[in-house]
Inverse folding.
């Protein structure tokens, strides 16, 4: 209820209470209304109490119409209560010797209390009828109800005319009968009955019979009884309203009885449609709440038996290995598999919409059947034009799947297909998130494996960078301080990418780090590394590497290459490719590896630059598919040789990024630069 409606409702209740208090005091002071003025004042107070209480109640009930049966039951209980009070009051109220009701203080007080009970009850009943009248109406019928309300008002005040002239009873009778006609017209509007379930309609049918009788007897008592005479003497208009409400209730429940009776044949169909809509809503809710694929599949099969009025249901999805039975309901896995294989066959079935299978014909060659069905409906689970599985619904009874049944199965299958697709996407997303977390851990490990700082001295300047193609990579470089003069280095590239390459790279790091303290000769060290890797590398994996030892004092570089990219030497404005022979680590574990491996000794001159790099630089491609190549790399080093090494690395990476900006990086990038400065 909005704040404005609450304010209006509260004001209506305050006005009703105020007028009721005035009415109570007025009738205690003037128990009889023989004078016309007193009668008019009393009628105005009664009508005001009725009006404001009605305004309050109908605003309150307007937000409680989700269950029409509760409104009917409440109105019926009040009607029965009124009938009970009328019956008891007839025997309790005292009469004089002439048979007329005595207006003693006791009678007056008791009667005023009863009057207020009557006012509250008939207003609540009338407000309930109003809410039922408007409930589930597609068009606005307020004109009809407002007209009836106007004639209720006219019927109430027309009684005043009789006090001026007893012959003026025809306006009252005319208004009274017109009001009854309008009551009949308005009672026909019971659209809400169509939305009740079959069980609720049977309950309403019995309730309507009882309440039409109760309201009929209530009308009879108010017309011809002692309490009726007292109500008439208290307020002729109130007795008229009381009579009309009792007539309204009697007519309304008679109409409800016959309307409900006519709706019973379609009640089962409506219940089924309501179940379908509810199930569709449940599946829609499951699409956002249930993340587990198996739980969702089990829910769908159990819902299918309810929605599609079937005895068993099962769900099959397609994957890379064929079809998979995910969930069954009221059927065993073996039987469901057997029926599915018969229906779908060995290959991919041709139907892309619901099919009805005759079970008898399907198993005509079989004398004994564990599960006996009459018909089986098979609906494809289709999302974005792709069939991801099939939903089966089977019936034991000899009742075919009609058009509505087929539409229900297919519609439910469509919803189920989207829900299952969402569940799979969510699972994939969760798995992806898990892998990303694992990759974060692997990235941290790799970051710790690579050296944080590079060796530095006044004779030797070093710059190194590593850019993985993915979260982690297989490229590796490291430096080893052998003694005060000699520093060793390794640049390696593990075949492949991602986590597997990173794990091999971690293993290679440990091997190089251990052997660097034992072997000072690059060739001997690489031969030993190859022997150790024999039992640790798969045939599909190998490692290319460059291992060198540089003497800072003399500028002598001893270097060996195991299948890695050529070494570049920049000296006095020219670049030379150094490519000592050697095959990759792990490609051959015989003497062929050691025989192919050569060691090269180089005497560096002042400001000579040595570049070791991975093929992620030279094989980077542009939009036309051209490689970055050796020539571009050599020219960049030669052209910028006068700069410090970090600036040269930045220039190379900038040019590489511009060159391959239309293509994503497909391989790890490693670049290690050395510059020897003669002292």
């Amino acid at each position: 209820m909005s704040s404005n409606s609450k304010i209006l409702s509260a004001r209506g209740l305050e006005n009703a209470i105020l007028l009721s208090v005035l009415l109570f005091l007025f009738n205690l002071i003037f128990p009889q209304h023989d004078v016309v003025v007193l009668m008019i004042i009393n009628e105005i107070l009664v009508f005001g109490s009725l009006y404001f209480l009605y305004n309050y109640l109908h605003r309150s009930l307007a937000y409680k119409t989700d269950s029409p049966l509760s409104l009917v039951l409440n109105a019926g209980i009040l009607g029965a209560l009124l009938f009970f009070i009328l019956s008891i009051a007839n025997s309790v109220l005292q009469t004089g010797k002439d048979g007329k009701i005595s207006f003693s203080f006791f009678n007056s007080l008791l009667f005023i209390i009863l009057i207020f009970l009557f006012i509250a009850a008939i207003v609540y009943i009338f407000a309930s009828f109003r809410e039922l009248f408007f409930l589930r109406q597609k068009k606005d019928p307020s004109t009809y109800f407002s007209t009836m309300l106007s004639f209720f008002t006219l019927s109430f005040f027309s009684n005043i005319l009789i006090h001026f002239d007893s012959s003026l009873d025809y306006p009252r009778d005319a208004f009274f009968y017109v009001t009854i006609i309008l009551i009949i017209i308005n009672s026909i509007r019971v659209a809400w009955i169509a939305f009740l379930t079959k069980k609720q309609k049977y309950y309403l049918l019995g309730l309507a019979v009882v309440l039409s009788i109760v309201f009929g007897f209530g009308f009879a008592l108010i017309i011809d009884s002692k309490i009726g005479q007292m109500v008439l003497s208290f307020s002729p208009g109130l007795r008229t309203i009381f009579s009309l409400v009792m007539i309204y209730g009697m007519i309304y429940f008679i109409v409800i009885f016959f309307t409900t009776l006519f709706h019973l044949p379609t009640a089962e169909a409506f219940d089924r449609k309501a179940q379908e809509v509810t199930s569709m809503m449940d599946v829609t809710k499951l699409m956002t709440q249930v993340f587990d694929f198996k739980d969702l599949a089990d829910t769908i099969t159990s819902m299918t038996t309810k929605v599609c009025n079937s005895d068993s249901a099962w769900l099959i999805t397609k994957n890379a290995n064929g079809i998979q039975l995910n969930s069954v309901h009221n059927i065993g896995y073996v039987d469901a598999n057997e029926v599915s294989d018969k229906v779908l066959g060995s290959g991919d079935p041709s139907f892309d919409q619901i099919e009805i299978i005759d079970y008898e014909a399907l198993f005509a060659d079989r004398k004994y059947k564990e599960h006996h069905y009459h018909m089986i409906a098979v609906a494809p689970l289709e999302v974005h034009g792709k069939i991801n599985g099939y939903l089966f619904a089977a019936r034991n009874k000899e009742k075919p799947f009609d058009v509505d049944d087929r539409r229900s199965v297919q519609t439910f299958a469509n919803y189920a297909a989207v829900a299952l697709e969402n569940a799979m996407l969510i699972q994939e997303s969760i798995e992806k998130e898990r892998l990303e977390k694992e990759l974060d851990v692997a990235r941290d490990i790799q970051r710790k494996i690579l050296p944080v700082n590079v060796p530095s001295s006044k004779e030797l300047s070093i710059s190194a960078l590593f850019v993985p193609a993915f979260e982690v990579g297989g490229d590796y470089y490291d430096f080893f301080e052998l003694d005060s003069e000699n520093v060793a280095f390794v640049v390696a590239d593990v075949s492949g990418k991602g986590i597997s390459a990173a794990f091999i790279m971690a293993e290679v790091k440990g091997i190089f780090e251990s052997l660097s303290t034992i072997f000072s000769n690059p060739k001997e060290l690489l031969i030993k590394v190859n022997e150790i890797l024999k039992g640790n590398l798969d045939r599909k994996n190998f490692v290319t590497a460059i291992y060198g030892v540089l003497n800072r004092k003399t500028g002598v570089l001893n270097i060996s290459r195991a299948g890695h990219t050529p070494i570049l030497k920049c000296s006095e404005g020219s670049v030379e490719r150094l490519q000592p022979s050697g095959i990759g680590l792990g490609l051959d574990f015989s003497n062929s590896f050691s025989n192919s491996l050569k060691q090269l000794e180089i005497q560096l001159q002042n400001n000579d630059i040595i570049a070791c790099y991975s093929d992620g630089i030279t094989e980077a491609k542009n939009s036309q598919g051209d490689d970055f190549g050796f020539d571009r790399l050599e020219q960049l080093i030669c052209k910028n040789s006068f700069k410090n090494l970090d600036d040269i690395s930045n220039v190379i990476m900038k040019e590489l990024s511009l060159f391959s900006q239309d293509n994503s990086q497909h391989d790890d990038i490693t670049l290690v630069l050395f510059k020897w400065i003669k002292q």
